[in-house]
Amino acid sequence: MISFWLRQCLRSSLWRCAFLPARVPSCGACTTRQPLELLGIVGLCLGLIAVPLHAEEARGRDVVVLYNSSSDASQSVAEHYAEMRDVPSKQVIGLPMPLGEVISRSNFIAKIETPFVEALHKAGLMQTREEIRPATDALPGRVLQVVTRAKVRYLAVCYGVPLRVAEDATRREPESSVLPEALRRNEAAVDAELTVLPLLLAGHARTGPAANVFWGATNTASLNPENGVFVVGRLDGPTPELARKLVDRAVEAEQKGLLGRAYFDIRGVTDPAYVNGDTWISNAWLVATRYGYDTSLDQKPETLPTGFPLSHVALYAGWYDAHVSGPFALPQVEFMPGAIAYHLHSFSAASLHSTNQNWVGPLVARGVTATMGMVAEPYLDGTPEIGLCFARLLFSGFTWGEAALVSQRLLSWQLTVIGDPLYRPFATNAIDRLKDLAARGDGRVDWSLVTLYNRKREVTRDVRSVIAELEKEPRLRFSPVLLEKLGDFWREANEPAKAAESYHKACAWKVSPQQRKRLLWNGGEMAQAAGDPSRAYDFYATLADIHDPLPDPRTLFERLISLSQALSKEAEVGRWTKALEDFDQKAAKK
Asked: How far apart are CA 244 and CA 236, in angstroms?
């Protein structure tokens, strides 16, 4: 618990700047056999059984739902969420609010903050006591409210509730004078203000960000209104239907696991003012890799190209485009149920209701279950540390709302967290998840097996022993997921011919469009490395004939030209030369 004297400290602007850097760089510029042979080995893996020692179970009775009673769509989202999470009716609060994503500071206080606190009191969900702050030479006297008891910790904000509190140029707070000029702003995400609502009631300044004393916390029980914060998540997106799906997908992933692959995209920056962005995303990649995901880390300055083979996406983190781009801009993205995706940009959540502008709205529209973004310029240190967020999710069993909260150095600022705050995809450890999927004959057991084989590979440091185990797995005969994994292991073992054969076998089964592109590309590379130009040509030619954006078309056509020449396929030399010329012409026009 946070003592009263600490609450007093939290009110001061000096505490607000405690974590602020001297510079504030912009971030905007089938039946299944239980694989018992694994169970004796995987217990050796570090972090395999991720028992959340400090994470409490989150239930519907612990959450209050806030919606805009002026919007039928907002109410429908609230009612659906309450039904899915078994939230008591008295904890579903509707308030008449202005329609639209932006609300003035005065209206935020009058239409949201004050009546919401009154509704919490009336429902017996929160108690406060009044305290008198005497007047000083710098500040007038005030009657403050200090939260003394709360029955809820989580707050689910629904579609229709305004997104951003607009800047009020007439508002002046003496405490803000110690802040850097760039931070002397009172615009903020509505949800960021609701997160620190207890502190605002206790007199906390509304100008600039507030230091988060819970940054990096490991005990979720401390995250409660009595200590100054709500755990907030927003059910929102381009349509109310998509907002409702956020909880549907969350529940599915909790029951069956957040499975698939993880993708990370850094920029390779060296400027000290921006290198933290790369570091945080690289840390997220490391966390996902240690957990056992198949991961990809792109280190090129540009973001992922449109033809990148992005399949079975469970996790994603990257930066830095203003609007959704690359494979994420395609009409269909292969997000797995429960997928968590985050793109770092200053205005990634400037609006949530577009399917092609910014990032948050488009990601939700394409199937993401949880994300977050900034409604206005936060500066880099005002964005969440996504590596810390993923660590708390994967290895500590936090809910999405808790992990997002403790990954922020600054509160009362520009971040909005999208998704069910109760979403807890990693509460079940990997072995129990595997057993459950196997018992139910769920084909997603293959992804669970991949996670365990990856962990075994990390612990044993012996890829050939892992290959020997995997080759005994009966599901290998018909699982393209496991066949691709076997190919990856053979590639690591420097056996390109065997890797190519595994990729070829995987292609014979029904696979997703993006997985097929990756299998063909990797198969071509391995066949070339094995000195088999004919098989390499077949892989690459099949890939080139796919009516879909290609991964690195220039390199693909150049390889096909070279292989055609080596195989004396003169007609094919001309075909691929023409394809390369056409590609170059289109690229030049862009």
From this structure: 8
> Residue-wise over 198-211: b if at least 16 C-beta within 10 A, else e?
bbbbbbbbbbbbbb
Cβ neighbours for 16, distance < 8 A, ≥ 6 positions apart: 175, 178, 179, 205, 208, 209, 210, 211
Cβ atoms 489, 460 nearer than 8 A: no
Antiparallel, parallel or unpaired: β 371-374 and 415-418: antiparallel
What is the residue whose two structure tokens read 């003394």?
148
pLDDT single digits (tens) 341-357: 999 999 999 999 999 99
Can you list the positions of beta strands (E) in 261-312? Answer: 261-265, 294-298
Name the pairing type of β-strands 164-165 and 188-189. antiparallel
Stated pTM of the model: 0.90
Fold type of domain 462-589 = 1.25.40
What's the token pair of residue 181? Answer: 């000029």
Rg of the chain taking only CA atoms, in angstroms: 26
Phi, psi angles (nearest 5°) of residue 311: -115, 150
Contact 166, 105 (CB under 8 A): yes
Query: How many Å apart are CA 56 and CA 71, to the nearest integer?
Result: 34
Burial class (CB in 10 A: 0-12, 13-18, 19+), 544: middle
Identify whether the C-beta of residue 413 lies closer than 8 Å to the C-beta of residue 422.
no
Sequence-distant (6+) residues with CB within 8 A of 572 are: 541, 560, 564
Q: Residue with structure tokens 């806030």? A: 66
Q: Among residues 236, 228, 500, which one has the least CA distance to residue 358? A: 236
- In which element (H, E) is residue 337 found? strand 335-343
For residues 388, 393, 399 and 403, what is the CA-based torsion angle, rounded to 10 degrees? 0
pLDDT score for 10: 34
**Pick from 80, 125, 21, 48: nearest CA to 420:** 80
Terminal C-alpha separation, the chain: 58
Contact in structure between 65 and 92 (CB atoms under 8 Å): yes
Structural domain boundaries in the chain: 4-44+59-418, 462-589
Q: Of 395, 139, 182, 217, nearest to 290 (Cα)?
A: 395
Residue 282 C-alpha from the chain's centroid: 14
Chain segment 65-108, per-residue pLDDT in tens: 999 999 999 999 999 999 999 999 999 999 999 999 999 999 99
- Closest C-alpha to 475, from 504, 449, 493: 449
Closest by Cα among 458, 457, 470, 455 to 49: 455
> Which helix (H) or strand (E) element contains residue 59?
none
Q: How far is CA 451 from the centre of its chain?
A: 19
**What are the structure tokens assigned to 315, written together?**
């996790």
**Residue 127 to residues 61, 121, 445, Cα–Cα distance (Å):** 17, 6, 47
